[in-house]
């Protein structure tokens, strides 16, 4: 008995001591700027970028990788010019776990607040994954007053909340799309399908979260206005693991197109496999990460052929020959991390956000939050995701599908067989990036 | 199994000071008074000072620990009545949503919403759980485990009360240490009043219900009504914790029903020692700061936390508080046998 | 028709989830909250064998099942024996162990689309106009086979009979020489092995992630409670009720309501008939 108690006492002391020591160490010794870049001639104190996000999701993990890549590039050139000196960026990370459904938002807020209070970042990039957490964090950011450049959460509720008090929430920006943008892109692709192939019946399935609701709402409205027959419009709970009722409905209703919007790999993966298993004779279109990721053929199989996906913004995982910046970014990413980013969304926004921040700091000539915010509002940056300018009324980046030199853009692509019979992703819309046209599967003719 | 012959036995004797501090002789000298008062006064004193002394972040951790402490206390109270609950998140969430909804839709201030949420939450929880109050043991535990999950999914599915997005930008508590103080004071009040209550006649009936309910029934006491009262008290405590958390974070969402809020109070009570409310409080005061301190370890945090939990539950099944109490009152010696 | 087919498949999958949990509970009274974690651990171990050690599937799968069984045995022997009988401690230990396993897996990066097990056989066939893939047929077949085998095991082998003896009356079993420590550990070993067997056939249907662990646990609990905590026939009926309930709810009310079905079922059953449909715990343990 005595020995056992002594044992727990020892273990507890050991763990507590270890954690306290490592925390103390973090504050004393500055972290090496992630991974050591080539000889920077920097003199100044590092500018601290905070990355509080859900690291156990592909979006958070790859977003952090993109940020580190950008920081390395900037630091290699000496850093950011502030006043007379050049100062490097330093990235501090915390895992808010908000990508997992079991994490209470309060817990995520605590993790975020710990990062703010202990590491004192000058700005935050990437930011929350879960829409609920994004809205909750808006108050936190407003309280502590530092710029947050969100690059993951897509919910339009951000704009709504922002408009309730623009002066209070002015520190918040969104550098990436919101879900109405891919919705618009999909609608245009549906137009092409209708015009070229006379398809007209559609089944819409989406994840029961705000961003997906907005996404599919746009698509639905478009379909209703353009004479599409709606076989069904179903929301599935975010943790759903069985889509057979929906796929059956699509099959029995003779839907020619199935539009699907999902982000967590789990549900999307099951859907993809079930779609293949149930042999539903419909064209798959939408945002289904496992079917659109570079590794889709290995995971789902050759049945991904002919499925159409939207990637937002450009450069997230598909290199586009007509937009050399995307090729450049993805090549750098691959060189450093040995593989392309997994999810076909938002990775390029994370990369761009660091440069946008750097430019804003140089424009403002100071790290003071209010000046930085004013400088950020003036952003006009040509990055991997297009030309990024902020809408003054909502602090969101402007995206459209007309011209990558004017706004940010996204891309729609289809899996097709190339001349050697390999499955590759061919961009099909918009015209300024398209390398091919949409093909109809032979079993649909 | 091999037979082992006992060569030593443990001999436990009350400490001298404990014997001297019995009944009226406690006021005989300062030593005895201190001996009795110190274990009670020290934590009280500490908790009263801490909100002033701690930095911003650790002040928040203290508040969080008190919230979990309230949940652990309510769990312990239910356990003292024989109701083994795995659904503290249920109480927390109901209180949180009542306060949140009143604040969001009617813009009432916390001074009004919190009392309403506490009492209303207690009533609602008791009412919702009254059909299953006849269940015992693991079955009651299962229902309480499932109820918060059901409510969470219902809110997500129907989209009521903010749905998946939650209600945000609610009215905050007064700035500074007042907010933290409220919860610390309520926490301490709860510990001491529960401890007092369980030793009064009312509490004795509760403990009897836990030990042998048929005997209590045969004494013509309506045990269901008593159980519902226990649910009300525990529910009100949990609901207060929820309402407080809502106003403290200015946000309420369906994640308030998370499993985390159900399991941690149970773990805290198990660690500290079930049956004595001080044990539950002690357990949560240890576990929550530990969980926060472990954040430094990044990804392994929860795994290590669970490991510590398992080891403490196995190695010290009686709980830390019982162990400390025993050490404080008694000393042990190994004595040769024969 | 497709409702029938898919309802049946869903029900069999649910039964596969539950059979391990139910066995452990029936024999040693231990509610194994680490059930879901063991399920996912199997997936991870098969994936590692396949992709990192490059073993063929026919070795990876059975090896994983055996490993997980041994793991369950060890967990019982080392951790749970010491807290046997203290329901609270058992609950915390198994639950914490489950969470720790899932967390460790996540820490090792076990999320994302590359974590997927290959299907046994690709392709499918039509049953009554409903396309059904071979993998699901294999799942159904395995489920039925398992039930039959389990029945034979529990009624005709020495260990199986020892299991039943302990489930019926532990003291008497002890007096006949059935050592409860050993049999208890074996019960957890078997429960874990059954969970991993379910994982082997069901996981290829989708992508693997730690979050599935919690889901499997909830489904297993739901089916076990609805059917009665240690009755095999009750478990089968319970799984069919919940399975069909889910598919029907998705079809006729809306897919959003799918997850509500098992949760409501548990609460209703517990409120009305706590011992479950076929439960044998009708003795005064559950209500007054």
With strands numbered from the N-terminus, the spatial order across the biggest sheet of chain B is 1-4
Number of strands of chain A: 17
Strand content of chain B: 5-15%
- What is the arithmetic mean of pLDDT of chain B? 86
Q: Tell me the series of helices and strands of chain B, N- to C-terminal.
A: EHHHHHHEHHHHEHHHHE
Structural class of chain B: mainly alpha
Q: Main sheet of chain B?
A: 2 strands, antiparallel
Which CATH architecture of the largest domain in chain A would you pick? 3-Layer(aba) Sandwich
Net shape of chain B: globular
Number of discrete helical segments of chain B: 14
Please mark out the parts of chain A with pLDDT under 50 across 5 or more consecutive residues, or reply none: 22-42
State the share of residues found in helices of chain B, binned by percent. over 70%
CATH homology superfamily name of the largest domain in chain A = Response regulator
Apparent shape of chain A? globular
| Strand order within the widest beta sheet of chain A | 9-8-10-11-12-16-17
The helix fraction of chain A, in percent, is 40-55%
